[in-house]
Task: structure prediction
Amino acid sequence: MNDYSQIWQTALIEIQSLVSPANYSTWVKTTKIVREEEGIVFLGVPNEFTREWLFKKCHNSILRILRQLNERVRALEYVVMREDEQRSDEARKKAISTSTIAMPLQDFYINKEDNLNPRYTFDNFVIGPFNELAHAAAAMVVKNPGQVYNPLFVYGGTGRGKTHLIQAVGNKIKSLFPNKKVYYLTAERFGSDLFDALQTSKAQQFKEKYRKYDILIMDDVQFFSSKEKFQEELFHIFNTFHDTARQLVFSSDRHPNIIPDLEDRIRSRFNAGMIIDIAELDKESRMAIIRTKCGPHNITLTEEIIDYLATEIEDNIREIEGIVNIVAHQTIHKNKDLNLNDIKNILKNNAKPKKMLSSKEIVKTVCNFYNIDEDSIYNKTRKKEVVKPRQVIMYILREDFSLSFPSIGDKLGGRDHTTVIHSYEKIKEDIKSNSLLLQEITQLRTML
Ligand code: ADP
Ligand code: MG
Result:
């Protein structure tokens, strides 16, 4: 997905047919794709209003159109471009800041052959007590692929660096052993490829494909939970790789023994190699990461500010990066170093109190996503375009927010808890086979 402008030009033609000419020239024409990362397309918009309008009115359509043009696309996010970035691509390339929005495209270039993102390396991987064992095991695997720790299984909470580490393994092996064929993919991608292969009677090709690789790296394998068909294919891959001493690397958000609905034979294969966790970040490590992340932005923060940030942002390197990006933007924008108060304001404005999200906010996000009226969720309508979003809301409230079935029923217009259970079960079942629905829910989760 390198030629963004081409893809966007094609998408624009389709979008043009969906909105009025006035809206098109006000809101749509002024946008462009600024980058893509792991299937997330970042659409550059000139200002907040445009972002708001596009998100409310066209988000789903644009996402659908992009997906049709490139099956890798999973999600769509918006970034507000600075003026110099809007003028021309040339100007954008020369932009002084190297922060997220202005990152040169090649930094986000994902190799089509192996899906690896070259930005994940050992060189920019900070090591601390929380990840040193995982790092050491990964380094061993790099030196002796297929010979020690096979499979290598890395697990830990979100934003702790699992993807970074396992991709760094792939990138490093590639450079040390140019003859070895490396392949990275998420378990979800594996599932949807398999699903497509089965639909089009290409199961054999699917199997063949994996025989080609020397190192297979699969991210987020907790996704295999209760997906029997996928587990079966994975089992065959295990055997092929094991018999020929080829390296497998996995990540998961939890230890394989607590991934629900996983066949014993899969669990025991995961357990046969090295299982290692990336633990919670300690404060020193958080501080080290903040310092490192400031580097590319050419900003230096005082120890007081670093200490403050490390205390406030507790357990997620992705969040640390996000905040450092904002700090860097504001520093450039204001043309002066920020003080502690500025930093406090940034944190206040960017706080994401996920656990405190009300069900109303969730309803709102889901309704925006599906372009339907919020009221319809609470009333009795059985229209198809409302039933599905309503079921998705119930599913998310149960699955991600652990609300009880009766309380979900109460919150959504006084529905009986058996209806809620039915809806929850239905979505849970549907996402096993409907990869589009699964993508929608994955995308929604990132928006909550
Ligand atoms: P996970 O897969 O565990 O959710 P990621 O690997 O996606 O986490 O990491 C989130 C972000 O933090 C990425 O941008 C990654 O480059 C960065 N990151 C993670 N671990 C480290 C580390 N040890 N040093 C520097 N950056 C890191
Ligand atoms: Mg990850």
User: Anything to note?
Assistant: Residues 88-108 have pLDDT under 50 and may be disordered.
